[in-house]
Amino acid sequence: MAKSEKIMDSKKKPLEERVVSISRVTKVTKGGRHFRFSATMAVGDGKGLVGIGTGKANEVPEAIKKGIQAANKNLCKVSIIDGRTIPHDAVGTCGKAKVLIKPAKEGTGVIAGGAVRVILELAGVKDIVSKSLGSNTKVNVAKATLEAMKSLRTKEKIAELRGKKVEEL
Fold first, then answer.
1. What topology is assigned to 79-158 in CATH?
2. pTM over 0.90
3. Phi/psi of residue 141, each to 5°?
């Protein structure tokens, strides 16, 4: 697929955007306090493509726009099997935040909270169980979830890496 075709494909169905967190940050100067806003955004297509980004600005809408641009630059493809769940258990960490994700039976739904739920739904996962361990900082939990999703591999991918057929594994 040529580069221009990829761009056209992404223009056909725009990525869905969701807010992970918005926080007010303060810089204390000699002249007083200087307030700005930091927005962490997640984008995804619901078919295995997901990314997160952070933007900072003096106004919330501006910060959100910058966050979306950063998230679009950090898109990555994640493994989803049967169009609904993940191939195996995985653990992702970012700072002291640790996220455990496990595949689930059909009809289970997304059992996750906060930032984990946002990332998993944007990735297109429909049946999954997750547990957030350690720190509960929204930004780090979202990054840990994305790291766990990146570490997933299907049988086909592993066979390809080893230069074997799926039956040989």
1. Ribosomal Protein S5; domain 2 (3.30.230)
2. no
3. -65, -40
